[in-house]
Write a structure and sequence with these properties.
Layout lengths: L1 H25 L6 H24 L9 E3 L2 E3 L3 E3 L6 H9 L4 E3 L16 E6 L2 E6 L7 H11 L9 E5 L4 H16 L6 E6 L15 H14 L4 E5 L5 H12 L4 E5 L4 E3 L14 E6 L3 H12 L5 E4 L5 H9 L4 E4 L1 H5 L3 H11 L1
Parallel strand pairs: 3-4, 3-14, 4-7, 7-8, 8-9, 9-10, 10-13, 13-14
Antiparallel strand pairs: 1-2, 5-6, 6-12, 11-12
This protein binds flavin mononucleotide.
Flavin mononucleotide (FMN) binds next to strand 6, strand 12 and helix 10.
């Protein structure tokens, strides 16, 4: 059943991309994967109304759940921060994710970078994505409104709120506002993740170069709440930096390190024409970055800080390799875009592993 749905999804996805590109060519527009993603998301939600139970409801097998402090994830597979459509995230949870981190949110409503800002690439035979979205989003008020209207928390699985900001004060304010809202809802499971390294926002404050800022932010958050806090480190940081940051993060209670984000690549690095991404490059994601994810987790495992890994994870062998290093949770983005049925497939394979 999973195989059939997966094959159907992949065939339809290729067809949709082909039609979207053909349409863009006829209209003289630049090639832009985002149109296909938006169309695909609409269709996924449309199918839900009449075929949802058959197409999306896959119970998570018993016995593969993991704990991260007081949070319980019934599967170690989670959604990495990349999506803000809560209805689509709801579908992905029904497919078997143990939890989900929402797309990074900033205070204000943001349009993000000019399009095109999302493209498919093939590097060394591996299909992946390059994105320079620039954190488009509805802002904190918009997110709170969407959460009020959504049934995301009804799954009883932890939901991660990824926070960004232009300044430390803004990170603090964003955290306080969201924490105030979430802590007012009874019996929900949530955590925060700090996005300190967005390659696509020239105005974003990059804390990867300022450990003291990160330290003061973590202390501030801990003083105001006992909720689990993660920090997402980037593969672009040097190994020495990763260790120094993990040491700092570990010094604050109930924290975890998320090892992995999308490393920065220029268009020419990944074989795209210069104008294929409006700002000349972006975060490269997909299987091609798994080697670095494994390398990062190998280095960080020695630090004895709870680890989440993100970057290129798409098979049960990836999950097992990371689990063997002591990784608790595996964040996935590109694999889920390419084939969301990898979620129930890996869950099932994990039972046998
Ligand atoms: C379209 C897109 C948007 C993303 N937006 C965010 C974001 O808002 N915050 C964040 O921390 N990471 C973001 N990421 C990075 C992913 O969370 C993930 O770290 C990265 O894609 C590597 O994982 P993958 O190889 O499984 O895709 C984004 C990635 C993609 C492809």
């Amino acid at each position: 059943m999973i195989c059939m749905l997966s094959l159907t999804y992949r065939i339809i996805r290729r067809f949709v991309i082909w039609v979207v590109y053909a349409n863009q060519r006829i209209k003289g527009q630049p090639r832009d994967l985002e149109d296909a993603v938006l169309y695909g998301d609409q269709k996924l939600k449309g199918i839900d109304s009449y075929l949802g139970r058959l197409a999306y409801d896959f119970p998570i097998p018993q016995g593969i759940g993991v704990h991260l402090y007081d949070l319980f994830f019934p599967s170690p597979l989670t959604l990495a921060a990349y999506k803000d459509d809560l209805k689509v995230i709801d579908i992905l949870l029904r497919l078997g994710l143990g939890g989900a981190t929402l797309k990074t949110i900033l205070k204000e409503v943001r349009q993000g970078n000019p399009r095109p800002r999302l493209q498919e690439v093939t590097v060394n035979g591996e299909k992946g994505l390059v994105n320079a979205m620039g954190l488009p989003g509805s802002g904190i008020s918009g997110l709170i409104q969407s959460l009020k209207e959504s049934s995301l928390f009804a799954h009883g699985r932890p939901i991660g709120i990824s926070i960004g900001g232009h300044t430390i004060t803004e990170y603090q304010d964003n955290f306080l506002e969201l924490h105030r809202f979430l802590s007012s809802i009874r019996d929900i499971s949530y955590y925060f993740e700090l996005n300190i390294s967005c390659p696509n926002t020239p105005d974003g404050q990059d804390m990867t170069k300022s450990p003291h800022l990160l330290e003061s932010l973590l202390q501030f958050m801990r003083n105001h709440s006992d909720v689990v806090i993660g920090v997402k480190l980037t593969p672009d940081q040097s190994n020495e930096d990763l260790v120094a940051f993990a040491e700092l993060i570990k010094s604050v209670d109930k924290t975890y390190v998320n090892a992995g984000n999308a490393p920065y690549r220029t268009c020419s690095d990944v074989g795209l024409p210069e104008q294929a991404i409006s700002i000349g490059g972006g975060g490269y994601s997909g299987r091609g970055i798994f080697k670095r994810t494994l390398e990062m987790t190998t280095i960080l495992a020695a630090m004895k800080v709870p680890l989440v890994a993100t970057g290129g994870i798409s098979t049960v062998d990836h999950v097992k390799a990371l689990r063997d290093k002591g990784v608790v949770l595996m964040g996935m983005a590109t694999a889920v875009v390419q084939d969301p049925y990898c979620i129930p497939r890996i869950n099932r394979e994990l039972v046998l592993a």
